[in-house]
Fold:
Amino acid sequence: MQENTLTASDFRFSISLPDDAIASWHQDLEVMYILQGTGVLQLDDNQFTYEVRQDDIIVLNSYQLHSLDMQGSGKALSLFISRTFLAAFCPEIESMNIECKSFLYPKEEQARFNLLRSEFASVFQAYYKNESRFPILLRSRVGVLLNNLVHNFLEQTKPKDPSRSSSRERLRKATDYIHQHYRENITLSELASTIYLSSSYLSHLFQKQLGLTFTAYLTNVRLSQAMTLLRSERTITDIASEVGFPSANALIDAFKRRFGVTPGQYRHINEHDTAIPKENGMTSEGFSTDFSSLTQHLHHPEQSIVHPQVNEVHDLHVDTSRKIRMLSHNWRTLVNAGYAKDLLNGAVQAQIRKLQKEIGFRYLRCKGLLDDDMMLYVSKLSGSADYNFVYVDEVLDFMLSVELKPYVEFSYMPSALAREAVFPFKRPSILSMPEKLDDWLALVTSLVRHFIDRYGIESVREWRFAPFVSPEFSGYGVFTMEEYWVLYRETTHAIRAIDPQLHIAGPGSNIDSSDYISDFLVSCSKGNCMPDSLALRAYHSILPGQEDSGLQIMAEDEAFPLAASGDEQFLEHTLHKVKKLLRQRGFGNLPVILEEWSNSIWQRDLCNDTSYKSAFLFKNILENYDQFEAMGYWSLSDHMEEIVPLPDLFHGGFGLFTRGGLPKSCYRALQLLRYAGNSLISEGDGYFITSSKGEIQIFLYNYCHYDTLYRYRHTTHLTQTERYNVFNIRNSRQYHIRLDGLTPGDYTERRYSIGPDGGSAFDEWLKMGAPKDMRSEEWSYLESRSLPLFQMHSRQVTEDFVVNAVVQPHEVQVILLTR
Structure:
């Protein structure tokens, strides 16, 4: 059984997947629902064996011995209710026994079970929709379910067999001790002595009641804990010591006997291919159905997307004469344009020109400058190499023609230089160390000298250079971290040997990879290759198992198996940790830039096309305004993808533009953010207020985070057209903003908004009927409709002037008050 739990103080959910079943019991009351497939359920000392199927619902009482073995693609979902909550809800429940096994009754007698299924689904919905923020509501839903169990499934008390009860209680004490002390060197004799039994009797008790020896049970508990820790970055040796094995080899041997693979192989599988196979639990359109059988029992499934008609009221008092700090607008420093070869595409160039005209950035970053499709490094039959700068020059010439400075990443590895060829994406990008380091350094040196000869040293000194790819790519196994640091150090030395004033940025680690960042700083300090700016990446993603509230991640061929973090302040919190680390290492003045960032690593997240993304950009840019030296959003266009393209206009790409150049809501959000003034006068949850001469700029947003199911890529409530079903519940926000210090007189008020009601190309496309093919005039109509909603009024401002606004979920607003 592989479990990923959603924990709370009184309740938790757990998913059971196909694996070796382990006999177990626990204090909690367990309500189990079979999501899909079939399984074998054994109860009460293996006296009863049942086949369970999709839609079955079962209750397991406290300390009821059971074992569930799901078959094939089968999955079960269990709700565990603590004895503490049970005692508070109904003190008599400890002496009660719930008899609930829906599979024992025919179809015509399922009415009372259907009501229980509905209540179970309602509790689960409360969890994944984040109603845990409202504990009274959540507890009331659990209370309704328990009330049903007590009134409709309470079994008449039967006389208990004293001998059987006594044996069960002794075994419970033994297993409780094991779960508390499994890290220690427990022996059968020690345990028997602790609970005042003979070793032979206790051994017999394990074998009879659980079908396992004492040693096997202890080993299973340790292996279960080891499986959880293997999802972290801890070493096998550390894990073995943590869970009670005498050595790493002992853990490896036990793990392989039990699961057929070593711990290292299990970790590799979980990092790259663990999840549920795509052909299981998926519709023909590619949407998951794991929870469909359960959610169909909700009385009103559509309510999962209806937001409460209650406003959160925010009364703000703003002194417009106060200046908190001056703003540099660093979010406009850098933007990503995918891969170098894409910049030779006329459609992409048109999108970049539009971006520069309407928003304006300073730097453009692209990857793949050394890819084979750039034909930069060409081997001759004699074994020597020629450098061909034609395509590279065209790319850089275009950047400079639209007043964008190049952010040059030396990636990936030309095939003629590669030690081995690994293709991490569907593109012709090779991840490898060079066969000969000197040949790599010669290529980098020739490129930099060519840049200086062609564009001039003063111009090139304003560029940014990244010596290689992110160190996390070592996870593919094609190079070690030691090899990476050598390459990074020597490449940095080669660049600075040409001109010490050239700006080096690196290494491109994930922002939450403290170990990588720390090792990088130590290595650079020792190797005299400290970068001029620390370059990081942030995709708001986590490994399964990094948080307590998690579900089994779904398999996606085109993306790394990472879940979206449940931390809505992920960027702020991780940046704080990085800056603290820099101060501790003595590099507090080292600038930090985000060379890549987005909401997740998933390249087919259909919510990328919705107005959710405009609120995401508002939230993260405004909450971290000027905290980074640059924030390079990934990426400019859906045309620049690392996976197989799809024909759909809105297919969930990262881009600010669709492949055909239609601006998405996220692009419109950046257009509005450029209105920010040069002075910050107030900021807080959901608002950011700035000023410039003669004008006040008010930015409001109502961000909704993904619910737990969708964070782990369960697309049960998603379709091509219905994409707002996968978010936490959020109220509308009502703002009353009193602006003190304004000079009384006549002002012009301009209001812009982006949300499902307007300003979002996707939502306007839905209103058009979601057409597959559009004529040119229809395309033009859609583009015009994708502009933010706009209103303009004349206002008479007095000394106690108040601005009122209501911001709906997924909406952003900008209010400009100009004298």
